[in-house]
Each structure stands twice: as structure tokens, then as C-alpha cells.
Amino acid sequence: MTRASRPPASLLSLIVVAILWEIVGQLKLIADGAFPPLSDIASQFWHDRGDYPQHTLATIEAAGIGFVIGNAIAIGLAVVFSRIPALERLLRGIGLTLFSVPFIALVPVLLIAFSADTARIILAALAVYFPTMVSTLVGLRQIDPRLVDVVRAAGGGDREVMRLVRFRSALPSIFAGLRIAAPAAMLGAMLAEFGGGFRWGLGSYLLGSLGQANPARIWGIGLVATAVAAGGYGLFALLGSRVAGSTLGATTATTAGPEALEGGRRDPLWLRALFTLGSAAIVLGVWSVGLRILGISPVVAKTPLAVVHYLTSGYGAGDARHELWSALGQTIPLLFLGLGCGLAAAFLLALTLSLRPALANAFLPFALVSQTMPLPALTPLLVLVFGRGVLAIVMVTISVTFFPSFVTIAQGLTQSPQGPTDIVHVYGGSNLTVLRYVRLPNSIPYLLTAARLAAPRALLGVMIAEFLATGTGIGNLVNTARGMLDYGMIWAIAAVAVVIALALTQLVGVLEHRVWKRFGV
Amino acid sequence: MTAYSRRDFVRRSAAAGLAVYGGSALTGSAFGALRGTPTKLAMQSAWVNDFEFLGYFIGMSKGYYTAQGIDLNYLPGGPSVIPESSLLSNKAPIALTTPDTTIKAIVSDNAPFVIIGAQFQKNPLGVVSLAKNPVHTPHDLIGKTLAVPPVNTLAIKALLKINNIDASKVKIVPYEYDPTPLLKGEIDASVDFTDDLPFTIKAKGETPVSWLLYDHGYPLFNDTVVVTKDALKNQRDLLVKWLRASRQGWVENFKDTAKYPNAFKDSYFKGNGRTIANEIFSNGVQKKLMETPKGIYSMSEASIEANLKALAAIGIKGNRKMFDTTLLAEI
Hints:
heterodimer, A: mainly alpha, MetI-like fold, 81% helix, B: alpha/beta, D-Maltodextrin-Binding Protein, domain 2, five-stranded mixed beta sheet, 10 strands
């Protein structure tokens, strides 16, 4: 794929899709007309043009502040972590917890603890922190040892190595992280707005518009959000390619294996266990102490002990436990199904695109739409097309997991070692042969890395579908608990969701470690 | 809050050339300044800006609050904003709530709340369906799919129980405030505000059928004015003044239900995603649900008793002490 061929490919695919969209909308082919044609969306947008500037600017402002704060903390901590790996391992629990706590449980809690404006910025910052931190850390660690030798031979110390080698070689990774972070910040801010308490913001506009049965308006808001997110993505892609000479496609360095993440060492089991325990203790400590510092009423803010009390000896603890168990029984099987389907979809797509690379750029805009279109806005379409059963859950889970997984797997498929590839070509093998003997085996570790990153998101996807469409499982339970002021249940579900996400991540991590070792990547 | 402390709002709308109401608010401030600096007071609303809160917008724009020495900080609500939580996290000493959740919080969590007034004598919440597939009574719900917002789950459980309907015979699914699935027939009915949703249904060319939970065994108030015990003890005077200014706003609103939705087109209602025609329709309907001979916000002994009785039927055992009608008596 040459650089010159890119714009026409995207443009052409955009035009084709726009035409298809119009036809499908005009003929009311999807959901009996609940999916509007582009021309309806455009004319509604024109009608609403006076409302958009204030809403859009409010969201961009909050997303921008959250983006700066979240990324500054992420990059700063990554630099510290790369110097003091033990610290990273101790604080990893907090990072993972914040990454995997379901937003639908987090939003009410943030809105309780902080002013609405602060909550919105925190949510945007949280959405960007983890991906950027991991990208930066991997970038700082994946360096060419020969460069370090050169600096050291010239008399440089750790500081010079950091400045001249590590930070420089990490730049492409950092920009890759920032690219993914831009749409994430938008979505984080909009989720807070959709929770309410705001006069201005695209999420508030969406909320106010829902009752009007006006799909053209809903899609207009979603497309404006997508345009802003795509703008942020494009800006950092451009800056990245200028600053770092990065020409890679949509990649995050989160795709590296556990070795890179852990600084290439593997400690004895007891030490690892100790770090895990310490990390968990810090999470529980921050949870308990943080609530005390914020000074929120114990009726609302439940500490770890209060949650245990709620589930074991509190008033109605038996009922609460029963509700929680039966809800988990509904959620967990669907979690595995959804995760599996999401990864399979990402894998198939990455495979197709590795055979026809030109499609990759054409596909990117639509991948972005799927990442920035707020799911509550799609609920009517979702239930009309997929119903309110297992299918709806699987589709939502695919939509929230496939993008990061796709990016990771695609990187595994394209970054095949040159040597073996050349050997196949020399012996007259086709691209398909290369795929079969080199790229596919090479991509298996990346698939597992994708699974590790996708696991918390899959849980989120299942819960979102449960609370939007099916009314089952822990997603629905957290939603009704919210309506009944059952604060104990909200915190219990947030905690259980984090535990499930972490357990699944750990499980995949163990598998992943074995595979990376075996394939010796 | 960036855009919506009252002063900011006044400044911005004045800058945008919408100074009519801003102007009168400034006059109000001037009066307040004569009486001394107005006291800051925050209230947690229950939803985004719409007809349901017109009385407060009028009170702010016409300077009723400043005339009472109050600098009102109005906090909009939304689905994830639990109004009671704002009381507990000291964001606001006054919140508009649903009485069932408030009384449940007092009973089960010892939450320090007192109900000092009720905006709606009759809860506007009801069951809305289409005439071509109508649901006329609670018993018509049997075998149907009903979409319920999570915050109203408790109310629907109560409705079914009070009407002796087996809850497992009604298929309950989540409702995210978009009536499209109802219009397309994917669900048979939804639980929504009967002073609002019928407008959208008519606008889409269908005939709505709706009835109030209030009229079918669940006679609750709504948008109950709830304060913390602390505020009741230390700011009682200010709360009375807030009730007075708010009632004044509502009385002004109901003189002509079309006037203020139009007047606030470019201020409080700008960009709220709704049409002014919808606000006017809903304002007309809500008049009947709010007005009462003893004055807006009143809580008669009979209606308090009816609230408590309905809640007791679903195991929420409140008592008369959770209501305080003495502030209203001082207006």
C-alpha cells in the first residue's frame, strides 16, 4: 500500500457507504425506518444548527481537559514506572481496577462524590489513562540495546539513556496511545453528560432528545461526536508521523507481550504472589481511605467492609446475595460467549484486511463510528434489529471489543518476521502461503494479548446490553439498584465486576505468557 | 458549573442579546443587594431543563428568589443523578425526589431526610400505549411487554402487587426514554410521564392511551421537596423563603401556560432537544396535576396518609414524621 493510494480509497469507500446508507434509509430496510437516511440526518442537522456549537464546545472542553490531565499522568507515571518497575507492579491493581470498573456503576458514584463538571473531566481522564500508560511503558522498554551501549560508552548515565534513547524510541508508541485516547476522551465525557446534571454537552443534548422519537437527531449527534473524535485521531496521527516518523497503521504498543510490560524479567512465584497481594491491598486501602477523605455520607459511599457487611450480615443480606448470584449466573456465560465472538470477529476482519491491505484505511472511519456512537443512542435500533435476547448482548459485546482487538491482531498479522517471509517467497510461495506458515502462527500471541485487553471491555459490553435491552444479569441489577437507592448493591456489583474482569485478565495473561514463551517472539 | 450559575447565565444571555429576562433578574439582584447579600442556596433538580421545572426558571428570571434574599444555584438532573445523593454529599440541601425512594432511604438506611412539600399532587407517571394496541387498566398488562425506566421499577412492582397481578405475567424490559420501540410495536406499553410522551406519539400520527398509576391504587406525590434534617434545623427560614418564591413562580406560570415556554425558547430551553410546542402541551397537562386549593406544594393529611398506605403495601413502612407541613403553613 503506498501513501498516495490512501485518500482515494477512503474517499471512495465513504461515498459508496453514503449511497448505500441513503438507499437503505429511504427504503426503510432496517428496523422499519428507525434507521434514517443520510439526507434526513443532514436536514435535521441544518434545522438544529443553532444548538450544536454550545453543546459541542462544552464536550470538547471537558474532553480536552480530561485528555491533557489523563495523558500527563499516564506518561509521567510510565516514566517513573520504567525506572522503578516494582512501583508499577504495586500500582497496577489500581490502574486495572479503574480500567475495568464498569462505567454504568462508576458514573453515579462520581456524580455523587464530585461536582458534575469535575466528574465529567475525571471520566474523560480515566478513559485515556490506561491505554496511554501501557503504550508509553512498552515504548520505553522496547529499545535497541545497542543504542544504550552507545550512550553508555560515551559516558552517559541513566538520565541520558532515558532522554536520548528510551523517550525517543517511545515516541511512536506514545503517539499511538494518544491517537486511541482522543476518541476515548470524547466518549468518556459524553457518558458523564448522558448520566445527567449538565446544561450543555453533546451527551445532554442526546438525553434531552431521546423522548422525541427523532432518529435523525440522534444520529446527527452521534456523527458530530464521531467527527470530533476522528479529528482528534487524525491530529495525533499526523503529529505522530511528523514527530516520530511513525508510518505504522493504527497500532497501540499495548500489543507487546508480557515480557515487554514486565521489563523482560520473570520472578519466582512467591515474589509475584507478594506483588499481587500488595497490589490488591493498595486497591482496598485507596478505596477505604479515599471515601473518608472525600467525606461522603456512609449511606452512599460504601467501604470494602461495608460491602462485605451488606452481603453477609446486613438487613436483607440473604436476598441481596441471592439476587447477585442469580444475576451473575446470567451474565458470566454470556461474557465468555461475547468475548469469543468479539475476538473471532476481530480476527476474521484482521485476516481479511491483511490479505487486502487497501481496505484497512477505507474501513477505519467506520471502525471509529462504532467507537464514538454512544450506545444508549442506538438502543431503539439495537432492540428493533436484534431483539432483547442473547443476540443483542453478543452484538453489543462485539461492538465494544472488536476495535482494540482488531488493531492488536492486525499488528500481529502485519509485523511478520522478514526472514521466514523471504524464505517462503524464495521457494515460490504466494502471499496466502506466507499467511499460513508465517503470519498466522506469528499472530497467535497477539490474539491472546487482544483477549487480555478485551476481557474487561467484554464485561462492560454485556452489562451495557443487559441494562439497555434485555433487563437481565448484573447490568440490569446495577441499574435497578440505582433506581431503588440500593447503594450497597451498586458498590457490590462494581467490586464483583472488577474481580471478574481481573480474574479473566489474569487467566488470559497466564495463557499468554506460555504462548509467548513457546513461540519465542 | 461553568455555564449555569445564575450570574453566568445572566451574563451570557445578556451578551447574546437575550436580555429581557436577564434584565429583570438583574433588577432582582439589585433588590437583593439593598436587603443585604443574598444567601447562596443550591437545589438538586430531577431532570434536564424542561416544562417540569418552569416554576423555578420563572422564579430565577423574575427575581422571586433574590427578592427573598436567595441566590439560587439550580443543579439540573438526569438518569444517573440520584437526587437524594446530592443531599447526602452536601451538594444541595434541597432536592426534588420521588417519594417512594426517599421514604425507602429513610427507612432502610436511616437517611436524614424530611419531606417539606410536594410539587405534584398527583404523580404524572403512568402507563402509555397506542390506541391500536391499547392498555386501559393494570390488568390489561397481563401478557404484554412493558418498558420501565430503572428508577420506576419500585413503582411498577407496587402497582402490580396492589392490583393483585402476578409480576411474572408481565414482561418487563428496560426503558431508556426513547419511544421508538413503542411506536414500532416492539413493546406494548411504556412507563413514562403522561403529561409528556402523548405529545410525541400524536406528533408521530398515532393515538396515545394513557393512565396514571395514581388512579390505579398507587396515589403518590411526585417531585417531593426533600431537605436534610440539618438544613431544616439550621436554615429553616431560608427553606420557607425558597418555598414562597417557588410557589410564586408556579402561580405565575399557570396564569398562561403558553407564555413562559415561548419566553424561555432562547434561554432555559435553548438546545434542550425538545420543541416549544411540546413544552406548552405538557405545561397545560401538568397544571391539573399540580394545582390544589391550599396552594402549590401543599400536602393534605389525607394525601399524606394515602402515600404512606400505598408504600406500606409494598413493605416500605414510613410514618407521618417523615413529612413536615409546618414550613408551608408559614408561607
